[in-house]
Each structure stands twice: as C-alpha cells, then as structure tokens.
Amino acid sequence: MFSKYEKLINEADDLSLLEQIRVEIFGKKGILAKEFAKMKDIPENERKAFAKSLNIQKATLAKLFEEKKATLEAQETKKRMREESIDVTLFNGRSTSGALHPINDTLSRIIDYFVSMNFAIEEGPFVEDDFHNFEALNLPDYHPARDMQDTFFFADNYLLRTHTSPVQIRTMQRSRPPIRIISPGSVFRRDFDLTHTPMFHQVEGLVVEEEGRVSFSNLKFILEDFLKYMFGDVEVRFRPSFFPFTEPSTEVDISCIFCQGEGCRVCSHTGWLEVLGAGMVDSNVFKAVGYENVSGYAFGLGVERFAMLIHKIPDLRSMFEGDLRLLEQFR
Ligand code: FA5
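The joint structure predicted for all components is written out below.
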C-alpha cells in the first residue's frame, strides 16, 4: 500500500524534494496520519493487527527516508566542497609578508654584535626585590631612582625592575668569574612623553675577571667598536658621569648622525647624541655579592633610543601603538 511512497523516496534526487515527501508521508496531515485515523472505524478484534502492520510499514518508510537523507546530504556536502574550494596557491599579486618590529630589529643587531664578541646572554625576572634592583647595586635609600615617581612598587619590597642591572647581581651570585654577559629585556618606569614610555628595553653588559685583567681601556674599545657597528662611521666621546654601581662612570656620546656633528634640533645643537651609560664596577657591588680580588666593567643602553636614532622615529610612543602603517615602512 505504501509502495508508491517507497518509490518516491527512492527516486528523490535533492533534499528539498525529499522534505516535501517527508511532509506528505509523516506530516500531521500526511498519509500515515490518515491511515492511523482509520483505527477508530476498525472492528476491535482487528485493530491490534492493523496497528501492528501500520507501525511496521511506518518503520520501513522511516528507515528508507533516513538512508536517503544521509545519501543526499553527503552528495550535497561533496558538491559544496567542490564549488567552494579555494586555490591557496593562487598568487594575489600583492606581497603581504611581515617585517621585524624596529625594536626587535635593533635588539637583534645589538645581540649579534655581542655574541660575535663572545658574550653570553643572561635573563632575569621582571618582578624584582629591592636588594637586586637597588641595594646590591649601591643605590642608597635616598637615591632618587627609589622614588615612587620612577618605580612601580608592589607590597613587601617587590617592584617592577627599573633597569636590567639586577641581572648583573643575579649572574654574579650564581657563578664565578670570568663573567662575560649581556642581558637584554623589558624594564619599567613611571615615565611617559615623546622619548619615554612606562615599559622599554635595555641591554646590560657585564665583564668580570681576576683583578687587573680588565681595565677602562677594554671598556672603551668594546663600546667604540660596538657603536661604529651600530651607527657606521661616527665619532665616540666618553664623558665623566655618575652611576652608584660604577666608579669611575661615564656617559657615552656619538657624533650626531643627523647633522654629522654640525648641530641640529635632534642633538639640541650640541653635535652629540648620548647613547650609553657605563663604568668600572663599583667595589661596593662586588662586596654585596661576596666577590674579592676581581675587576670588571658594566654598561647599559636603551634599545628604543637606538631604534629611534637608527630608523629616525620621532615619537617613541608610536612604536607601541601597533599601527600597521608604521610597521609597513620596515618591510
Ligand atoms: C641605567 O638604567 C643604568 N642601569 C645603565 C648602566 C648600566 C650604567 C651599567 C652603567 C653601568 P639610565 O637610567 O640612564 O641608566 O637608563 C639607560 C637608558 O635607558 C637611557 O639612556 C635611555 O636610553 C633609556 N631610558 C630610560 N628611561 C626610559 C624610558 N622611560 N623610555 C625609554 N627609554 C628609556
């Protein structure tokens, strides 16, 4: 009696047609509903057999329907995959390759130089304690760097490191001389203007040897050579300065790369650009880590300062905005 519907299901060749057939058979006003409605007119003694036969036929149709539906769905998916497939090898005529961020680019060049000069790379934690960031570096209580204005403090004498110099202390605590390391990494200060941001990057350098084996002239040589590697043919000048953790201390300038030392706005008409702090490690620092009969030098620089000079970027803050128009210039 239902063979007509079996045939319809078998011959359906798309899902919307199959849906129409489903409604015709299984819908509220469908053929099955009509058949079941006849039950009430069937004599009671035949009713059970009638219902049983109807249910068997209903199950047969349902199975047939589900099988057909699965087949058609699989065909449909296959067809869509064929139609919507994308040729990922197709060239769109435009190169969209990325580029190193100027800070990473500058940092890699700095690291390349020092690795070629046999320096190892050391890292330290961003969250430091007062001892490593200040005290062991001979930064007394009254030093302005300890001011709330400059440092992000946590409770219990913890803070965000304000420079990479604590890595000097950690390295000396865990090893013995000779030491020859650089330490690149993020540092944090409460600063925000054209040339200062709250997070920036420094590279620290530290060389420690048996007493008498390292001198200021070694420091002068390596920094001069390094600055010429980074900036080309520049003059390098060492000015006396002060850092609590070095004695003697120096600030290092290069001749202005914008005006070749003539004097311009960038160098405040001095002809010089300050790029580094350095000096011989102060004996109080060696005392704090229990070192005796050693000498050494240390230096520290701001990576963003180097990147701004090399790439002629006027506003440091633009380097942290993630604006693709800035990054696209460095492809
Ligand atoms: C120091 O931090 C010393 N620890 C460096 C040092 C190490 C000297 C070892 C001697 C021996 P200073 O505070 O000057 O020094 O910072 C070093 C460099 O970090 C600066 O020259 C500047 O380029 C950069 N710098 C400082 N503050 C910021 C800032 N807020 N944003 C970007 N760069 C900064």
